[in-house]
User: Fold this.
Amino acid sequence: MEWRAETSRGLVRPKNEDSWSVVGLPGGWLAMVADGLGGHDGGEIASSVAVSSIQQYVSEHFSGGDPGQVLREAILYGNGKIRESASHQGVPGMGTTVTCVVITCDMSKAFVGHVGDSRAYIVSNGKIRRVTDDHSVSGELVRNGTITEEDAMRHPGRNVLTMALGTQETVDVDIYEERLCPDDIVVLCTDGLTSLVSQNEIYDMLVTYDRDQVARKLVDLANQRGGYDNITVVVLWPQAVSG
Assistant:
């Protein structure tokens, strides 16, 4: 597998509260992005705790287990760890999105775990498809047909989350199982990208730029359009042959 990642504070926010990770497992790979929320450094802490705790749990429990179930348990574990940190550090209300993927060692399947409005996409057979649903006010309106995806990019409810890690005792985790084909591309990103760059534009850049350029080009485009939020992109080529 090959992967590239890029993150940016953007042009408006005083600090970068996104976190990300790509790590090898005994039986595959784990990649994730997290977009923190909450004042007084809470967002930065929450996203960092989410990434580190989920990574720890998956690494310890992945071998021989059902990947989707392990991922669900890991995200719930991360939810508890964020709440512990909020209590210990006196930062109530801090939370984070998380979108993560476990890719099996034979690179034939991807298991996506998701809470919030960061996103996972898969590019396959010349098309891009969004895997995850946004847990946001605008996302709910898209799902019930009230507004379109294009409307959602400008809707005032696009940044109002209906679910996040750390903000509640319990959380509903979305798990998706996807079959991977040769030449498929997996993209994880925070809403700092998708609020400014459309799905079709993401696809166009993935097929236009080489692997060493594309993550940076996507982040650059979001910054060129205002960079109103932190921006993080992780691009994975599961069945790529190095060299």
